[in-house]
Protein: Pseudouridine synthase
Amino acid sequence: MEEVRLQKVLAQSGVASRRKSEELISQGAVKVNGKIITEMGVKVTKKDLIEVNGIPLTKEKNVYFLLYKPRGVISAVSDDKGRKVVIDLLPGVKERIFPVGRLDYDTSGLLLLTNDGEFMNKITHPKNEVPKVYVAKVKGLPSQKDLMKLEKGIKIDGRRTAPAKAWGLSRDKKAETAIVELTIHEGRNHQVKKMFDAIGFPVMKLKRERLGTLDLSGLSPGQYRSLSANEVRDMLNQSTM
Structure:
């Protein structure tokens, strides 16, 4: 009978991404046949009883959803302050799903949710360079020279960002605001906002328009849809380029 590493089984079962599964193991949250496992590399088979936080592991059918996240919603499965989370927007989904990456509380746009931990890990891992396209309303009127700084990479939090693509969509000289589209391949904390702050044009409003081959066509804020098998395959293919 085939033996598989425990963290891989957890990820494939939708518990969390591979990295998060490793954290659960190191924290003592995982049992195999009644024994707490805290070491990496332990292998299991289909006959083994695996529990996470006391709940037996069951293999669900993999599901994939695209949500148009509105502003004012947390990209999480729960919130200790009682605020609305993205899971609340998918009440008909019975599987235990998780957001793939995150969008800030006040950022709207495209967010994927799934119970497939391997898919989640491939889409979010920086080495796979899945493009993320944002549209930002910024305070001020950045010039092409300003935007070139973003394209070449700019230092935030002591580390330079990877090359990006940026271009102005519109300018309102009277209000002194501009709309800028920015494409990045990373996913650092508050990265887009910090990049614009670094060149002196604070973000007033932010939306993620596209992720890889996916966009928000046909959806309004708060709505979601399932991904087709072709869309899932295309995203996985793009993530391994």
